[in-house]
Amino acid sequence: MTSPASEIIGKLMEDLKTVAKTETILGQEIKVGEFTLIPVSRISLGVGAGGGKGTDNKKEGEGGGGGGGVMVTPIAFIVIKGGDISFHGIKRGGTLDGLFEHLPEITEKILAKTKEADKPEAA
What we know:
32% of the residues lie in helices and 42% in strands.
């Protein structure tokens, strides 16, 4: 027989594994013109649980509790253009300035795509 804490930790870990997978760390590719961007993220997991058993004169009981959390932080982009692959870290604080300093063409194309999406479609 397993303890309540063991069962709780097992269930938490099972659920958290679905988040901490390769597809989360290396995100879905984004195509912008001739560029392909692949976001890279850092995954942080935390889990805590506890349980116990006790008896008094007439009763016996047991219980447990636990919790967990996941934090996904974007840290970089892998940029592919033709046969060239480069890695561009995001500056601390979460800004994309470093990426856009190196690839101003991407900024222009993203803005152009945004403007296209804002235009109403012709009937």
